[in-house]
């Protein structure tokens, strides 16, 4: 609340764009904020730089120097705040991270029109910031007139939505948060058509190093002890989401085979041994793991896309060419140890592709770490 009052109390006629530093805030802080704000327009920034921005923001907040910092460099403070959000959630919890986002949003609304007033063009985004309103419940969602009602459980492994909303497996977070903040949600189980079971399995397995055996125990206890309404319909109205190529509940066939699955794979991977894999043992993967086309049941399950953040979509669209201008397309379909060095792939002098003109002579394309080039 103090942050919100502070940001709203500063007069709009001030032009806090000098970013010269104050007695309590060195100019180097704004230099770092500017440089990283420029980099984020091109690529993701390394994690340790995000930590530096977060530490600077928390220091301003603790020291009472925030008001002076806003008067000196309001948009620099906004950059610190938005990059601090994942670290804010880790250190202080999601509720505090939400307060910090609202503070950032008010700064941008109040001073965003000055984004290029000092000769520097502020970006004022992070690669995740477009998703924060949905994740934090600040952007209510419709149910598209369907009238479907979904009861959303609370589970131990569905915490930290900001931290867990990064990467291709983040659909497990976004579907959960969408249900939580949509008109589809009901808190009355008697009127629910479906029961959604949120688990950020990919997140906890990668960030907290949970092993398959731990996940198996977690799911067994969840189904048998914590899903209060599971037995009413034999689990047929309960929804589980699998955001990676595997079902993260090894014993799923014994406990939830009749439940509804939202999956990013129509032919997921089933393993008889889950936890021995590493880069050194990757070649043994095929001995214990196979694709399982029968695991996905079309009459009850649904395929959903993996997650791609809006930041990446914007970057791809900016570089996208019309199909008629695309001469070659290349795809990485895997990696093998023997391909750790650059591989030369010959491209024939002619191609059946209508998009590829006849080449005057054989061309060699040097690819790093690829098995195949598709034209």
From TrEMBL:
Give an example GO molecular function.
glycosyltransferase activity
Keywords, A to Z, come to:
Signal
Q: Does the keyword Signal apply?
A: yes
Exostosin GT47 domain span: 147-271
**Domain of life assignment:** Eukaryota
KW Mitochondrion (keyword) present: no
Task: Give the matching Pfam families.
Answer: Exostosin_GT47
Q: Where is the signal peptide?
A: 1-19
Annotated family: Belongs to the glycosyltransferase 47 family.
For this entry, the protein name equals Exostosin GT47 domain-containing protein
Q: Which organism is it from?
A: Polarella glacialis (Dinoflagellate)
């Amino acid at each position: 609340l103090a942050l919100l009052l502070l940001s709203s109390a500063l007069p709009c006629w001030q032009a806090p764009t000098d970013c010269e530093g104050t007695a309590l805030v060195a100019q180097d802080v704004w230099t770092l904020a500017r440089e990283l704000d420029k980099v984020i327009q091109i690529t993701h920034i390394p994690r340790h730089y995000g930590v530096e921005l977060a530490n600077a923001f928390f220091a301003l907040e603790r020291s009472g120097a925030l008001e002076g910092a806003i008067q000196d460099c309001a948009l620099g403070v906004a950059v610190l705040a938005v990059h601090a959000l994942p670290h804010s959630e880790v250190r202080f919890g999601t509720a505090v991270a939400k307060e910090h986002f609202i503070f950032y949003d008010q700064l941008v609304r109040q001073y965003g029109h000055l984004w290029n007033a000092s000769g520097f063009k502020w970006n004022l985004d992070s690669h995740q910031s477009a998703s924060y309103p949905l994740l934090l419940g600040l952007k209510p969602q419709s149910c598209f007139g369907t009238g479907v009602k979904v009861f959303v459980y609370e589970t131990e492994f569905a915490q930290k939505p900001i931290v867990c909303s990064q990467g291709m497996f983040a659909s497990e977070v976004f579907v959960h948060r969408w249900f939580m903040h949509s008109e589809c949600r009901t808190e009355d189980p008697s009127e629910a058509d479906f029961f959604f079971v949120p688990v950020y399995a990919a997140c906890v397995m990668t960030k907290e190093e949970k092993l398959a055996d731990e996940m198996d125990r977690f799911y067994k206890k969840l189904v048998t002890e914590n899903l209060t309404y599971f037995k009413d319909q034999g689990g047929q109205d309960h929804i589980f989401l699998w955001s990676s190529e595997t079902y993260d509940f090894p014993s799923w066939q014994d406990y939830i085979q009749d439940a509804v699955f939202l999956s990013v794979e129509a032919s997921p991977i089933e393993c008889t041994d889950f936890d021995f894999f590493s880069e050194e043992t990757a070649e043994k993967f095929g001995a214990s793991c196979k694709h399982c086309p029968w695991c996905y049941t079309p009459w009850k399950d649904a395929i959903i896309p993996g997650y791609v953040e809006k930041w990446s979509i914007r970057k791809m669209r900016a570089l996208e060419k019309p199909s008629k201008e695309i001469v070659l397309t290349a795809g990485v379909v895997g990696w093998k140890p023997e391909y750790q060095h650059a591989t030369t792939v010959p491209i024939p002098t002619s191609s059946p592709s209508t998009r590829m003109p006849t080449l005057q002579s054989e061309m060699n394309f040097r690819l790093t770490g690829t098995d195949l080039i598709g034209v």
